[in-house]
Design brief:
The complex is a heterodimer of chains A (262) and B (569).
Chain A lengths: L12 H32 L16 H34 L6 E8 L2 E6 L12 E4 L1 E5 L4 E7 L4 E5 L4 E5 L5 E5 L5 E7 L11 E7 L1 H13 L5 H8 L18 H7 L3
Parallel strand pairs in A: 1-5, 4-10
Antiparallel strand pairs in A: 1-2, 2-3, 5-8, 6-7, 6-9, 9-10
Helix pairs in contact in A: 1-2
Chain B lengths: L1 H4 L1 H6 L8 H6 L4 H31 L13 H37 L7 H23 L19 H4 L2 H31 L12 H32 L13 H35 L6 H14 L15 H13 L1 H15 L8 H18 L2 H4 L1 H7 L3 H31 L5 H27 L18 H19 L1 H14 L58
The chains are: A alpha+beta (262), B mainly alpha (569).
């Protein structure tokens, strides 16, 4: 049901939404059951209907089974949940499928630098393409990413990919994703990183192979217009293009100052 | 205040010499006065924390516009407001009111003794606590403003002034938290020693009300978990002020170390405040359903099991923080297992209602609101503890909604349950019922109106601690903004509904209907003492013959059987 709120744009986002559904239905069953019993008792045993209370200690087995049995059932349910959670976790965080391409994201107070590997598919070579606050990837390719930070903790978060990973100064953290849906999505810093944390956004654009090629060339020719700034100005939203936008004219007076600081 | 009106009664039993206002109310060593001091300071800080929440929620609902009673909220101020809202609500509201105020006031009364065993230590505790508040307030007004690096204060942001841009704000904030912890350690030693040594004759450990048990277990957990945090705080303070580099990677330190030290304390801390709330609610639901507590021992064991498990779940706050991903599997298992004892505990509470004769007086309404809301808080924790799902939900508003559905019932709903329950004991008068009803329904409904929508924005991927979502086009849509405005409106109403309470609280001290010693016909010993209890508490110290939950015992004329009564009632 998460796809009602946010698109599924990576290969593992479907599995994660499935896990969410499992949790919602499983936990929801227990929640509704427990709440119903609680509310039923609250109404059934009110003073006007039940003027005299019973004396029940809850220490005898015949009584305590009523709380023990449900909790055994919860253990069984927990095992199912843990299995599901670990399966998704292992897929996203503990495996590294062979890569088609590699990118690097570097966070700093308060912007993003991205390094695209260029035609040779290797970082730190002549043909690398560098961008600020604007990441470009190709649909259907497996990407490895390297996360670095120049100062404090940041977090590389792409909600549409169901992906989130802290970036720690002094370390390079590796992971992967595979975009499956074309479009431009928010890329956020999701770890408090100081005064400008609220503007540390970026855009990730998932291209078709042709459009990716064209964009890379445009960047190198200097004719490229930043997707991130375009989105900020126009306020486009890929979730549902028909949704009206909050007027950008109401932006805080501090925003201009912060944006101009880098 | 109220004591003034009842001084004649108090003096009749006062074996001590006449005291001036200053020694009686400010530098008192009486556990009841210290308890009330904690309560008033805690309630005052709740207003401050609420004002902070109001200011930043208004900025979220109406970004860039002047907030009435605050002004423009700059990004730095926004960070400062959210950081200190969290810090205040946990360290200066939940802990002082639930543990220190009710613990101080009620433990000696509930176990039937005349005072804490270390009254002067107790006075030192409240004095240190007061100083911690002063330090916190100073931190808001130093150059650069208050600390804004989130209540978790992850380094290097919190340790390097060039990153946080709040040079003295960070240090004073840290100092204030450390002082508050010192105050609680001093108070906690007192609670434990008093419960161990000063119980009334005949009172076994299994005759102690659950509320006293839970406060003591909370204190033990606090003591066991706070050591690493204090060590970490000293290291962080040295990083800030002396130029050490414990958490600075460029000089060989490790920022993730702080996260372990912090959350090793931070997660048990959740249960440190939960347990006293559960204990208070246990006492209230037995009193008002006229039922014996279902499975006293089972509840006790589940509390201890939950407490023990809570020490091995801390890294679920760090799933995506750069820990070894294999570790996450272990912590996901322990985290989800904690649902088992907690669920059993809740089932025992629900089973207590079975066969009861429930009177919905105000304290009972608050207690039921606590159970229902906490159930929501409990089940919504499961997607967060499931490691795979947390990759998406980490640091989103889903987390915020979840922990407010646990913390709000704990710190606010249970606190009000306790205040309405023990008010007649504390001040010798009843609170106004109509104002109480308005306050209850107003608070309970607007609380849900405030936090249910936050689950939705969290599911849309809205991340925390952002002063203005217009910089994230996916999150700037008008319907998400509509949800934010709805939540903020609920918050404003929630705060307005506290006005009847504040009026009721103070006015009833003077004009409230006089309360007898045992207005709710409850069993535990605090109701044996006169209302309000004089210095020295009891006319004669009681002897205990049975547990505190012997309600509706067959063969008795009355449906309650006080602990100190030798014969059938």
């Amino acid at each position: 049901m998460l796809d009602y709120f946010i698109p599924r744009a990576s290969s593992f986002s479907g599995d994660m939404d499935g896990l969410f559904n499992l949790i919602v239905y499983g936990v929801g069953f227990w929640f509704v059951l427990t709440l119903s019993v609680l509310v039923y008792f609250m109404i059934r045993f009110r003073h006007s209907v039940s003027p005299k209370a019973a004396y029940i200690t809850g220490e005898k087995h015949s009584e305590s089974k009523w709380v023990h049995w449900p909790h055994y059932a919860i253990i069984v349910f927990d095992v199912v949940l843990i299995a599901g959670a670990i399966m998704v976790w292992v897929q996203v965080k503990q495996t590294l499928p062979p890569k088609d391409d590699i990118i690097r994201a570097v966070g700093q107070q308060w912007s993003w630098s991205f390094v695209h590997s260029g035609p040779d598919g290797k970082l730190d070579t002549e043909d690398d393409v560098l961008t600020v606050n604007d990441l470009h990837v190709e649909v259907g390719k497996v990407y490895h990413f390297e996360l670095q930070s120049r100062d404090v903790l940041h977090n590389f978060s792409i909600p549409a990919f169901r992906l989130k990973q802290d970036m720690i100064p002094g370390r390079t953290i590796t992971g992967w994703f595979e975009p499956t849906q074309e479009g431009t999505f928010d890329l956020q810093c999701a770890e408090m990183c100081g005064h400008g944390h609220g503007i540390m956004g970026a855009a990730i654009t998932v291209h078709s192979p042709e459009s990716y090629q064209a964009t890379m060339e445009a960047i190198q020719n200097g004719t490229y217009e930043s997707e991130y700034l375009k989105r900020l100005k126009e306020g486009s939203t890929p979730i549902n293009a028909k949704r009206p936008q909050v007027s950008q004219n109401e932006a805080s007076p501090y925003t201009e100052k912060l944006l101009s600081s880098f | 205040m109220s004591q003034a009106t009842t001084m004649t009664e108090a003096h009749a039993h006062d074996v001590h010499h006449e005291e001036s206002f200053w020694t009686k109310y400010i530098f008192s060593v009486d556990h009841k006065v210290i308890g009330l001091q904690y309560m008033f300071l805690g309630l005052f800080m709740a207003l401050v924390g609420g004002y902070f929440a109001y200011s930043f929620r208004m900025q979220l609902a109406f970004p860039g516009q002047e907030v009435p009673l605050y002004g423009l909220v700059s990004p730095a101020e926004y960070n400062m407001l959210v950081t200190n809202h969290g810090t205040i609500m946990i360290f200066w509201v939940a802990m002082p009111v639930l543990i220190a105020a009710f613990g101080n006031y009620m433990i000696p009364l509930m176990i039937g003794c005349d005072d804490m065993v270390f009254p002067r230590l107790n006075r030192l505790s409240i004095q240190v606590f007061f100083v911690s508040i002063v330090v916190l307030f100073i931190s808001f007004f130093v150059e650069g403003g208050g600390f804004g690096g989130a209540w978790t204060s992850y380094p290097p942001l919190s340790s390097v002034a060039e990153y946080s841009l709040t040079n003295w704000g960070s240090s004073l904030w840290l100092l204030a938290v450390a002082l508050e912890i010192v105050a609680f350690l001093i108070g906690g030693i007192n609670f434990l020693t008093t419960t161990m040594n000063s119980r009334a004759p005949g009172m076994r450990m299994t005759d102690v009300p659950i509320a006293v048990w839970t406060i003591n277990i909370a204190v033990i957990m606090f003591m066991a978990s706070v050591g690493p945090l204090v060590a970490g705080a000293v290291m962080l303070f040295m990083d800030q002020r002396l130029g050490t580099t414990f958490f600075l990677p460029s000089a060989g330190g490790d920022p993730v170390l702080w996260q372990h030290l912090f959350w090793f304390f931070g997660h048990p801390e959740v249960y440190v405040v939960l347990f006293p709330a559960m204990g208070i609610v246990a006492d209230i639901i037995t009193t008002f359903s006229r039922k014996k507590l279902f499975g006293y021992r089972a509840i006790l064991y589940t509390i201890i099991a939950t407490g023990a498990l809570s020490f091995v779940v801390w890294a679920h706050h760090q799933f995506v923080a750069g820990i070894d991903p294999r570790m996450a599997n272990i912590f996901a298992v322990t985290t989800l297992l904690i649902s088992v004892p907690i669920a059993e505990m809740l089932f025992c509470y629900i089973a207590t209602l079975y066969g009861g004769s429930i009177r919905y007086e105000l304290p009972m309404k608050w207690a039921m609101a606590f159970l229902i809301s906490f159930l929501v808080g409990g089940v919504t924790g499961i997607p967060l503890g499931a490691s795979g799902m947390d990759i998406f939900f980490h640091d989103t508003y889903f987390v915020i909604a979840h922990f407010h559905y646990t913390f709000f019932p704990i710190a606010i709903l249970a606190m009000f349950a306790a205040i309405y329950y023990w008010y007649p004991k504390m001040f010798g008068r009843h609170m106004n019922k109509l104002l109480g009803e308005i306050h209850f329904w107003g608070t309970f409904l607007t609380f849900n109106g405030l936090f249910l929508p936050l689950f939705l924005v969290g599911m849309a991927g809205q991340h925390r601690r952002i002063y203005n979502y217009q910089h994230f086009p996916d999150l700037a849509s008008a319907d998400l903004q509509g949800i934010r405005i709805f939540a903020t409106t609920s918050l404003v109403l929630l705060l307005l509904f506290q006005i009847p309470f504040i009026w009721n609280f103070f006015a009833s001290m003077v004009t409230g209907e006089k309360a007898e010693a045992n207005p709710w016909k409850a069993n535990s010993l605090e109701w044996v003492a006169p209302s309000p209890p004089p210095h020295g508490n009891f006319k004669e110290l009681p002897t205990v013959y049975r547990g505190p939950y012997e309600y509706s015992v067959p063969g008795n004329r009355e449906d309650y059987w006080p602990q100190h009564m030798p014969d059938r009632n």
